[in-house]
Design a protein that fits this description.
about 260 residues; mainly alpha; about 80% helix; globular
């Protein structure tokens, strides 16, 4: 059990030391740091309060509602990171995230189904949060690549159509690039997740939550595989849905900005 007073005192020490060091070095960004601390405290307070009540109520219905809210928030993050201006591009992200994370999230829930732990907020919320966060980052890169291809490969698209290619075949090149980008980014994230810092922290958190070391390692590896699988599935689904917004009413490719 964490000693609250010791934690607060240690947190104060952790903040005082950088302030002193910055003051000695003549770096004056205390104002910016205070704004950052306020923003962090506000977000942690809101998220912490929501998670606290979700764990206390332990309602499957409320957990599902919160996961859906996280999904929509992640889709908006994908739009922002991919620098897509139109709000209509949120729909492909939502579709991709939903299919990818539901597929892997439900599969992850089967790991502890015998003890019903998979149906509790203590298991569902962290798993879906990790899946959504990892998938959203990869999906943003993939969609950015896809729409960048629309802007720079219009002539190639019409060249293929003029030489007898179908609409599906002409867009296949851009789809492959998006999936390749997702796979490359997903592999990097999977390798990065096994770094000493990230891997040790996550497994340590699982062990502190009551898991054995073996269970923590197995679940950690499954999460890495789950994020990779979710990212690829989400990208394919999102790109297929995005095709609806890639062409105008006459079947001409839009110069998406």
């Amino acid at each position: 059990m964490v000693n609250l007073w010791i934690a607060l005192a240690l947190g104060a020490v952790f903040m005082i030391i950088p302030i002193v060091v910055m003051g000695m070095a003549g770096v004056n960004i205390v104002g910016k740091m205070m704004k950052g601390l306020f923003s962090m405290a506000l977000r942690v307070g809101i998220i912490g309060s929501i998670v606290y009540w979700l764990v206390q109520w332990d309602s499957i219905a409320l957990d599902i509602v919160f996961v859906i809210i996280m999904l929509f928030y992640s889709a908006i993050e994908v739009k922002v990171k991919a620098r897509l201006r139109s709000t209509s591009y949120v729909l492909p992200a939502i579709a991709g995230l939903f299919v990818g994370t539901m597929l892997t999230g439900v599969g992850m829930s089967l790991v502890n189904i015998t003890s019903l732990a998979a149906l509790s907020a203590r298991f569902m919320l962290p798993v879906f949060a990790i899946l959504l966060t990892g998938t959203a980052d990869v999906l943003a890169r993939a969609l950015s690549m896809y729409y960048a291809g629309l802007r720079h490969h219009n002539q190639f698209y019409y060249y293929m159509l003029g030489n007898g290619a179908t609409h599906h075949e002409a867009l296949g090149y851009l789809t492959r690039r998006a999936v390749q980008q997702a796979a490359t980014r997903g592999i990097s994230a999977m390798v990065g997740g096994t770094s000493v810092g990230a891997g040790a922290v996550m497994m340590w958190a699982m062990i502190m939550g009551g898991m054995t070391v073996v269970d923590a390692v197995v679940l950690f590896v499954l999460l890495l595989f789950g994020v990779f699988c979710s990212s690829i599935v989400a990208t394919v689904v999102a790109v297929k849905v995005a095709r609806r917004y890639s062409l105008d009413a006459y079947g001409r490719m839009k110069n998406t900005k």
